[in-house]
Structure formats: structure tokens, C-alpha cells
Specification:
The chain has 154 residues and is an alpha+beta fold. It contains one helix and ten strands.
Length: 154
């Protein structure tokens, strides 16, 4: 049996190591990209139904000029945009604007009831739109920038 002795100054052994590391990194990046590609994407779209909603401030402006609203609840139904129009269970529904945010999760009928508490318009602001955001697993995220309209009484 022959024992092979490695020379300390053999540059071929040292130069080969970085090349192996580069190949391993390229393979690792390719594997990560393949795994990310296989993750399920939201491919279905959502729709919602809400009553025509405009809210007039119930109280006259205070001494600071702020216009406060009485508390109200927005009811909406979330359903799939396909031909069947099935209700979407477990969708996270968020309504924001007028200085407040309200959230709810849809039930088995696709119904969400979002309480809006302490909404107000700052001085010099006569109206505000409330943005609706809906997120559900397996669906594309949905946003409507003017779902509810708040305005100051004239």
C-alpha cells in the first residue's frame, strides 16, 4: 500500500475548492427557485356585495373643526368570481379610512360585519373614502379604494 503525501504548496487542491462551492451554490439556488415555483398561487378572484354606502357625519363639527361620525356597521358578502359564485369562508376583510380601521372574518355564508367606531374628518376635510381590502387563501388579494364614502354635512 502506497501512502500519498499532500504537498502544502499544491495550488491545484486549493483552487478546486471554490469551484465546488460555486457549483453547490448554483444548484441550491435552482432548487429554491423550483420550490418557490411549486407553491400554490392565488388564481381565483373575489367579488363582494355591499349596500350603497355613504355615511353623513351625525354630529356637527366640534370646536376644533373635526366632524365625528356615529358608530356604524358595514355588512358585506364575499364570494368567488367564478360562475358558481360560492361564498368565501375565512376571508380577512379590512376597512380603513376616516382615521379608523375595522376588521372581520367572513363566516360560512361569506358575511362579514365590520364595526366602525369613532370615525372622523379633520378640519378642512369634507369627505373621505374608506378602503376595503379582502384576503383569502387560494384567492388573489382584492382592494377597493372607495368602498365606503364618508362626508361632512352641509
Amino acid at each position: 500500500m502506497k501512502i500519498r503525501k499532500l504537498n502544502k504548496n499544491n495550488k491545484a487542491q486549493v483552487l478546486g475548492l471554490p469551484m465546488y462551492l460555486i457549483i453547490i451554490m448554483i444548484v441550491a439556488v435552482a432548487v429554491i427557485a423550483a420550490v418557490l415555483f411549486m407553491l400554490p398561487q392565488g388564481n381565483k378572484t373575489l367579488k363582494y356585495t355591499i349596500e350603497e354606502y355613504s355615511v353623513v357625519a351625525g354630529n356637527p363639527p366640534n370646536q376644533d373643526g373635526e366632524c365625528e361620525f356615529d358608530d356604524f356597521t358595514v355588512k358585506l358578502y364575499v364570494y368567488s368570481a367564478d360562475q358558481r359564485g360560492d361564498p368565501v369562508f375565512g376571508a380577512k376583510v379590512r376597512l380603513s379610512g376616516g382615521g379608523v380601521v375595522g376588521e372581520d372574518t367572513t363566516d360560512s355564508d361569506g358575511l362579514a360585519e365590520i364595526p366602525i367606531l369613532d370615525a372622523k374628518l379633520n378640519p378642512g376635510i369634507n369627505y373621505a373614502d374608506m378602503q376595503l381590502t379582502i384576503k383569502a387563501p387560494g384567492f388573489e388579494d382584492f382592494t377597493d379604494d372607495s368602498a365606503v364614502y364618508l362626508y361632512r354635512p352641509t
